[in-house]
Write a structure and sequence with these properties.
By secondary structure, the chain is mainly beta. The chain folds into two domains: 125 residues, UDP N-Acetylglucosamine Acyltransferase, domain 1 (3 Solenoid); 90 residues, UDP N-Acetylglucosamine Acyltransferase, domain 1, CATH 2.160.10. 3% of the residues lie in helices and 28% in strands. The chain has one helix and 27 strands. The longest helix is centred in the first third of the chain and has 7 residues. It binds coenzyme A. Coenzyme A binds next to strand 26 and strand 27. The site of coenzyme A has 14 residues, from strand 26 and strand 27.
Length: 230
Amino acid sequence: MKTPPLKRKTRNSKFKIRNSKTRQRRTTNYELRILPNVQLGIGSSIGDYCVIGEPPRGNKPGELETHIGARAVIRSHTVIYAGNIIGDDFQTGHGALVREENRIGNNVSIGSHTIVEHHVVIGNNVRLHSNVFVPEFSVLEDDCWLGPNVVVTNARYPRSHNVKEQLRGATIKRGAKIGANATLLPGVVIGENALVGAGAVVTRDVPAGAVVVGNPARVARCVVEIEEYR
Ligand SMILES: CC(C)(COP(=O)(O)OP(=O)(O)OC[C@H]1O[C@@H](n2cnc3c(N)ncnc32)[C@H](O)[C@@H]1OP(=O)(O)O)[C@@H](O)C(=O)NCCC(=O)NCCS
């Protein structure tokens, strides 16, 4: 396949590119790739070596529209595939990867080295910390929060027959928080405002407002009992 031409950063672009003067002085072959059919909202900035609108396998460059709202801050080495519809005030850390055809709301932050696979639905005001893995068909409702190294899974029997047809992402309901290093098994539903403790392995649905800990995760208390959340 013919590789689309690299777009060099330019002062005339419709978006602002951070530190362009300094970077140009330091290196002459710095490149950033924005593929065709990418709409980037006003006031957005894109860091070094980002790729925006990468076509997924089987699609030509520009075949899928990519829309990113106003005031995005996309930090260096982030790759965003084509076919994403992303709201305003989107942020990524360094080296984030967002695969194709996701729906992402306003004011969402995707941390450094976090991976969001394809066909994921993310609501408004969602925060994904660093090194989080969110596989296809996951649903992250408004205001939820995933700590560092959280792993969401979607294949109960990896590499089994028909595994692709049986993928089931987790659903993280509004306002739920997932502690560092927790693992969510395929298809679990984390209830509204629930809190999953650090390192928990969640094998069953978590009731709304519950605090769960351990492997397998069990209800330890209720979020309302924690003074800091009152
Ligand atoms: C789950 C959590 C909210 C519980 O906090 P808490 O209600 O104040 O609980 P306590 O610290 O009083 O501990 C109560 C008991 O649960 C245990 N416990 C606490 N957190 C645990 C966890 N994540 N996994 C397993 N057991 C845990 C404690 O060892 C203690 O057991 P014990 O009574 O036998 O001694 C908290 O420990 C936690 O994991 N928070 C998430 C932290 C995180 O990932 N932050 C990410 C930001 S960087």
